[in-house]
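Sequence, please.
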């Protein structure tokens, strides 16, 4: 039978169906196209075994004059400088305070949890504090207290820390008069939608709730039992008060809060109390007299019962106990302004402990409705300038060493009118100005999201314009906020929410000129762009774009696939990365079923090809200062930095790489059956002769049918041919590898095919 060469167009095309993309590639992961040929991507290895606190969202590399290589890296809670694989904490200090006498109080005996009293501490859960000068407290030694700790907030005047010690007696105060150095408030690792009308489920139920279905219908008057298909994840708990409550108490201390959910409602006597935090047996962020009850005093030892809420259709139902899969105690129908109604068998039942009723004050933390933490960095010579998005600009001076923490621009020696809040900081190119975008104007404290300010040339801390310097400012003429700025070799690009401007150094008296170069230009995320030379690539809310003197839309063959399957609520996590080794730009994004980055779309800007895949990276920096690109990712929740394009394995494990063709058939009309009996592979496997890839043949007779795997053929570098036996109208070829120490480049494919009738 004759051999037929099956040729596929370079690049993955998912803009139509698999059958509509005939003679093309339809799916892929961890591959690239080079000179039109698919090949496996390079692997990665850990930079070091050292771990990172938080999820990296920003990475910036530079070299000192002595050749030392540095990388700045920001997470939701920390700012690091990496050198030699070590991560040095330079997170700025928010405040340093001498605490009142004996601010530490131990919890129960044998516990290392300590409650710290500090009026108006200003900390959030997840912040970090370091103590000095603390004395031994109830068996927890001074050495175990004079350390850095992560904070769990109880209320505005108290928080808890977890020490490595063990209390001797419990409920004992001590510690002397220690000094507490609070690091800047931590940000969010995941974007949280705000509460209110139109946010989440009606009334503000948060994501991550438990759900099941009714096991049998219920009437509008049923109060004895609510039967569920599974009640395993629906909370019940009861304990007692550890200490009396007054009418004005702002915290609730329990004998044991471990069985209570992290937030919800408790019933003490006849009063309902809503709480927002649960730490160290203390319920904080409380709302007294909830659901129309009355705030009263309660005795030490009074019973505290968790009040569960479920949502069925539009009705909220309260319960306090369950047996097996039945909620059968404390049932109250139609609570918090809802109406009791009949419900059918198998209707969805949702846990609703975070529900906020119509007209009721929201019981949410101060972080709800905020966006996740982003950082911006740039080096001033050997030093580092950086800021939190919409936060203060900071400066790290290499002269003082890696143990030195960064401090604000405004606090530097000789600082004059330096911005105190900004959206982004940048060091301009050869003209050497520090620029802040979306910052507070000179002499004002309020942030102006369209305001641009720059320091005097070669004077990073002098921001006061004079007749003899080049410091100045300019307000962007259109839009409501600056989203991001990006420097190129010749100019700086500034994206507002509606337009694109350029900023060019022109010298005195203007210093910089501003020009509108694009209207109706958007940016899906502040980090969804990257510059390669004078060309900038970015992702908007509807397309991919490039700029090299003018704005252009990049033809994209995976556009629908990407934009139809993204979690737009987490769009601020999306970012672009360059890989100049292979002339590529990658856009990492969160798919619709995920909350963290899990996918990418990759564009070869020289050959114009696209491919897609699955890979979790939260930050990236290209090679140059270092030999390999670097990407930040996690293993089982532990964060590492990886050297990308390093070897052929996933940090010592196998990479699963594949590329799959679209449907192909025998005749132009796709009417004739074909019989496939042999394939002749053409693949370059750049490892030992024992390594192999799989050629998987899939078939179907109609576009609407599911593909059936007909055969899997193992191919090594010495394989000459593989025999198969398949009859179908349409066929698909998938080339995949999932073993260690293998790299491959695909050539042409030849198949032995003959017509096989129409029936």
């Amino acid at each position: 039978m004759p051999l037929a060469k099956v040729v596929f167009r370079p690049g993955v095309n998912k803009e139509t169906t698999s059958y509509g993309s005939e003679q093309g590639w339809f799916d892929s992961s961890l591959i690239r196209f080079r000179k039109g040929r698919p090949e496996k991507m390079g692997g990665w290895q850990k930079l070091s075994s050292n771990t990172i606190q938080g999820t990296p969202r920003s990475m910036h590399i530079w070299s000192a004059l002595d050749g030392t290589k540095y990388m700045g890296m920001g997470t939701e809670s920390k700012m690091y400088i990496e050198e030699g694989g070590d991560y040095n904490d330079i997170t700025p200090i928010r405040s340093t305070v001498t605490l009142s006498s004996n601010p530490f109080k131990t919890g129960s005996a044998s516990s290392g949890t300590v409650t710290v009293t500090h009026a108006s501490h200003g900390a959030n859960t997840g912040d970090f504090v370091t103590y000095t000068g603390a004395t031994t407290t109830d068996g927890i030694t001074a050495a175990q207290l004079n350390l850095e700790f992560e904070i769990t907030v109880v209320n505005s005047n108290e928080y808890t820390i977890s020490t490595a010690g063990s209390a001797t007696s419990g409920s004992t105060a001590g510690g002397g008069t220690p000094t507490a150095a609070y690091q800047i408030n931590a940000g969010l690792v995941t974007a949280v939608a705000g509460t209110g009308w139109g946010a989440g489920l009606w009334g503000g139920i948060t994501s991550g709730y438990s759900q099941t279905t009714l096991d049998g219908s219920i009437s509008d008057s049923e109060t004895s039992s609510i039967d569920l298909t599974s009640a395993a994840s629906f909370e019940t708990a009861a304990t007692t008060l550890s200490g009396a409550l007054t009418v004005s108490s702002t915290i609730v201390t329990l004998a044991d809060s471990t069985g209570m959910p992290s937030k919800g409602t408790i019933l003490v006597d006849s009063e309902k109390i809503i709480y927002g935090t649960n730490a160290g047996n203390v319920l904080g962020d409380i709302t007294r007299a909830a659901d129309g009850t009355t705030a009263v005093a309660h005795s030490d030892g009074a019973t505290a019962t968790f009040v569960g809420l479920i949502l069925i259709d539009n009705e909220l139902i309260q319960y306090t106990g369950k047996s097996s899969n039945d909620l059968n105690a404390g049932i109250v129908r139609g609570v918090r302004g809802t109406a009791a109604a009949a419900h059918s068998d198998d209707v969805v039942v949702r846990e609703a402990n975070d529900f906020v009723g119509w007209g009721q004050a929201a019981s949410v933390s101060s972080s709800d409705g905020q966006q996740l933490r982003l950082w911006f960095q740039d080096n001033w010579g050997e030093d580092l300038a950086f800021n939190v998005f919409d936060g203060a600009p900071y400066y790290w001076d290499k002269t003082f060493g890696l143990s030195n923490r960064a401090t604000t621009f405004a606090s530097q020696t000789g600082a004059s009118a330096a911005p105190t809040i900004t959206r982004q900081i940048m060091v301009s190119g050869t003209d050497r100005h520090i620029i802040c975008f979306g910052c507070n104007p000179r002499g004002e404290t309020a942030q102006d999201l369209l305001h641009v300010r720059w320091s005097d040339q070669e004077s990073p801390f002098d921001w006061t314009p004079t007749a003899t310097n080049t410091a100045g400012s300019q307000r962007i003429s259109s839009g409501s906020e600056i989203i991001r700025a990006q420097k190129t070799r010749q100019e700086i690009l500034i994206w507002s929410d509606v337009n694109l401007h350029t900023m060019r150094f022109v010298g005195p008296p203007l210093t910089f000129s501003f020009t509108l170069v694009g209207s109706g230009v958007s940016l899906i995320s502040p980090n969804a762009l990257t510059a390669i030379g004078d060309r900038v690539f970015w992702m908007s809310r509807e397309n991919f774009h490039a700029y090299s003197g003018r704005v252009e839309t990049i033809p994209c063959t995976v556009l629908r696939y990407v934009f139809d399957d993204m979690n737009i609520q987490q769009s601020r996590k999306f970012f672009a990365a360059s890989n100049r080794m292979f002339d590529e730009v990658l856009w990492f994004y969160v798919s619709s079923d995920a909350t963290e980055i899990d996918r990418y779309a990759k564009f070869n800007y020289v050959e114009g090809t696209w491919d897609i895949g699955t890979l979790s990276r939260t930050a990236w920096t290209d090679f140059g200062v270092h030999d390999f690109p670097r990407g930040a990712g996690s293993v089982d929740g532990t964060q590492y930095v990886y050297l990308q394009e390093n070897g052929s394995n996933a940090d010592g494990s196998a990479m699963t790489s594949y590329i799959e063709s679209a449907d192909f058939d025998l005749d132009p009309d796709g009417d004739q059956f074909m019989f496939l009996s042999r394939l002749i592979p053409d693949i370059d496997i750049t490892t030992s002769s024992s390594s192999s890839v799989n050629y998987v043949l899939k078939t179907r007779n109609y576009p609407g049918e599911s593909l059936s795997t007909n055969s899997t053929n193992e191919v090594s570098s010495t394989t000459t041919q593989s025999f198969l036996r398949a009859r179908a109208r349409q066929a698909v070829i998938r080339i995949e590898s999932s073993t260690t120490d293998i790299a491959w480049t695909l050539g042409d494919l030849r198949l032995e095919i003959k017509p096989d009738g129409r029936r």
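The CA atoms of residues 701 and 729 lie 5 Å apart.
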